[in-house]
């Protein structure tokens, strides 16, 4: 596997945690808004980076003004592991390798559940939040706890690294669930993100709270980054897929 683990702050392994929350850029950046806002507001410690050659070839400036290679980042926050990135591998094989590595790290750190946060494009006025599971035992447990678990959505499936993380949990012996909020999807959507966070707190008994002002500010920041220039050459990696009911 052509994948590098870079441990930070002197850590050589992830401590034991109860839940892993993961999100990537996607429709409305719903999940990423939650993870980025949690990392900032709680000052969560970055402990691990996964580096894969199939990540988009764009280095970014970190908080110290240093160039950082493209990577998937792991942060500690209480009994949570927070996982996010500014992109994902551009090949199916790279996405598959990263998904399996993330899930194996979750199992090694004794996570009880991996929850992947995503957005789904929907019409104006559609304010839905629901879960989709990858194993029957987890689905029945969540249904009995009154969580909104769907068996018929999303009918278009889930694509990319998000889809693999959500579905490959049982392959490595861990529960993985996709938590989805509908969104217009045209830009970062802090309202949909707050709606998803409220449901997660209720369904999984999480003790999390993010001021809406923080999430709104993060959404504005993401929109501003979309318009900034970069140095070097950006390759045409793939055509944008605007099909509804799909996430990345």
Describe it.
This protein is an alpha/beta fold. It has helices at residues 30-42, 92-108, 136-144, 160-167, 169-172, 190-204, 212-226, and strands at residues 4-7, 19-23, 45-51, 60-61, 67-68, 72-77, 80-85, 113-121, 129-133, 176-183. It has an 8-stranded mixed beta sheet, sandwiched between helices. A two-stranded antiparallel sheet has the order 4-5. Helix 6 crosses helix 7 (212-226). Residues 228-248 have low confidence and may be disordered.
The major β-sheet equals: 8 strands, mixed
Mean pLDDT: 85
First and last CA, distance: 22 Å
Total DSSP E strands = 10
Strand content: 15-25%
Task: Tag the structure with descriptive keywords.
248 residues, alpha/beta, eight-stranded mixed sheet, 10 strands, 33% helix
Helix-strand layout with pairing:
Blueprint: E1 4-7, E2 19-23, H1 30-42, E3 45-51, E4 60-61, E5 67-68, E6 72-77, E7 80-85, H2 92-108, E8 113-121, E9 129-133, H3 136-144, H4 160-167, H5 169-172, E10 176-183, H6 190-204, H7 212-226
Parallel strand pairs: 2-7, 2-8, 8-10
Antiparallel strand pairs: 1-3, 3-6, 4-5, 6-7, 9-10
A few lines on this structure:
The chain is an alpha/beta fold and 248 residues long.
């Amino acid at each position: 596997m052509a994948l590098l683990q870079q441990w930070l702050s002197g850590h050589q392994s992830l401590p034991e945690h109860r839940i892993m929350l993961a999100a990537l850029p996607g429709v409305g950046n719903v999940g990423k808004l939650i993870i980025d806002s949690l990392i900032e507001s709680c000052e969560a410690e970055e402990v691990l980076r996964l580096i894969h050659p199939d990540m988009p070839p764009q280095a970014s400036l970190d908080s110290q003004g240093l160039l950082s290679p493209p990577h998937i980042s792991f942060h500690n926050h209480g009994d949570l592991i927070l996982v996010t990135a500014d992109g994902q591998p551009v090949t199916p094989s790279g996405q598959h390798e990263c998904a399996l590595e993330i899930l194996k790290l979750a199992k090694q750190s004794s996570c009880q559940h991996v929850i992947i946060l995503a957005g789904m494009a929907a019409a104006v006025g559609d304010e839905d939040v629901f879960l989709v599971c990858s194993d029957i035992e987890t689905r029945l447990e969540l249904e009995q706890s009154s969580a909104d678990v769907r068996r018929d959505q999303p009918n278009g499936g889930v694509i990319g690294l998000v889809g693999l993380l959500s579905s490959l949990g049982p392959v490595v012996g861990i529960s993985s669930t996709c938590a989805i909020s509908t969104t217009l999807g045209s830009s970062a959507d802090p309202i949909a993100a707050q709606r998803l966070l409220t449901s997660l707190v209720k369904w999984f008994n999480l003790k999390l709270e993010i001021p809406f002002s923080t999430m709104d500010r993060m959404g504005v920041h993401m929109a501003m980054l979309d318009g900034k220039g970069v140095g070097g050459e950006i390759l045409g990696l793939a055509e944008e897929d605007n099909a509804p009911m799909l996430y990345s």
